[in-house]
Amino acid sequence: MTRPEGSSLRVMSTTFNVGNRRVNDAEMSKWLAKCEHCDVVAVALQEANYLSSSQKRGLAVIAGCTVAGLAGPFGIGAGLALGTTTAGAMVVHSHVMPKIRRAIHKRNPRIPDVERARSPLLSDSDDEAPQKGSEGTPMLSLAIAAAIDRQLFPRGFERAQFVEYGQMRLVVYSRGAAAERRSAKHGMGMAFNKGGLAARVAISRHDRTFDLVFLAAHLPAHEGKKDERTMALTEIFVNLQSVSRDADVTFLMGDLNYRLDNSMLDHATACALIDAQKYDTLHDRDELVSELVGRDPATVLRGFATPSCDFAPTFKLVRKLSYPKYSEKRLPAWCDRVLFKTKSHVGLDLEDYSAAFCVSTSDHKPVTLVATLHKHPPPAVPPRFPPPPDLLTGEPPRRQRAVSAKIVSPPFVEAPKPPPPPPKRPRAAFRLSTPRMIAANRGGSAPPALVVGSALHVDDDDDDDDDDDDDGYPYSS
């Protein structure tokens, strides 16, 4: 296996439940050997609080002082006081004095570096000189971090992220500096050994930048608690979404504790299937497989995928054995898993998915996934079809100069005033004269005759001084 060329990125994601036991250096070297040709290595650890030999010596000194005080004439109070005073002096010597020496070293560079004069009592390097980039950790903290540093630093890696909570650790290594670094953590339970960690890094390879998110989780244990594990994973995703949202590739790894269905399988049958390497039969009873294949649109693992486990279950094994033997206290299961989710413009080529059965210090086995990432360029704009050639000359038409047309709004024109209303037409008023009696002379004249007369009057004036009746018809006599 060689390092990828061009703009590809090879990533190694591995998870291990340490079981609060020190890992042998030779076994760790075999476990992490696949990082040789990788660009990024992410290590998720659970139950990782174990003491180095120097830390154990420090606790022995504290315990000895406490016992000596109890044996004295002043009783329990003197013993507790002496033990507390000794522990405080060790903490001051290991944490306060280096800061003082560092301040003095800045003023006078000729004084040897403080990192070379660290106290051996609380050193996390297991009596070896610390490597570049490794930092001292307090008691009941991570001594395995320095051991992993000793494996990866000589191969050109440096720490890009380090996140811890309780007994969980997440360490991300890269060749070269990471462009972006963000982290978050979420704990559950009173023992500080369950919860989730998130680390986000941006790694550049030539003309591509990969935005990677690594999620480490330790979910509730025991058979028959699938719903509790799913609810815990949902809670972790909600609390870590500020870091894990919209990444190119998301890796989910850890002791997820998904088990085999014990209602369909017993310990003897499971061990017989493992000896016959009939892992497909066990996959049909795997809770994680049923969660992924169930196609439930509301599942928290929507979009994630995991390779098929072509290796024996990684829990629960007997410690300190050179061959795998499963404890009868628990049904064998693939508790330690690595899942991934990619965006559409990122391709993932799986190269390895295996378990390191060479590590014998824990009842779990480390699980490692190695994949090569390819980030596709954005889709190009489709070319426009060229215009047809000239029919007469057969030559392609000349490219006409593009004319930029600007739309100018017309100037504001005041609307014309409406024409004056036409003059009112003259109104004709018809007046009917009342009949009247016209009497002739009685003297030798013709008899009186009845004359009915009418008169037409046109008024140009709108104002009528005549008295009109209520019906609107004017009458005059």
From TrEMBL:
Residues 378-390 have a biased composition (Pro residues). GO terms for molecular function: phosphatidylinositol-4,5-bisphosphate 5-phosphatase activity. Residues 459-477 have a biased composition (Acidic residues). One of its GO terms (biological process) is phosphatidylinositol dephosphorylation. Residues 107-136, 375-477 are annotated as: Disordered. Residues 98-379 form the Inositol polyphosphate-related phosphatase domain. This is Inositol polyphosphate-related phosphatase domain-containing protein.
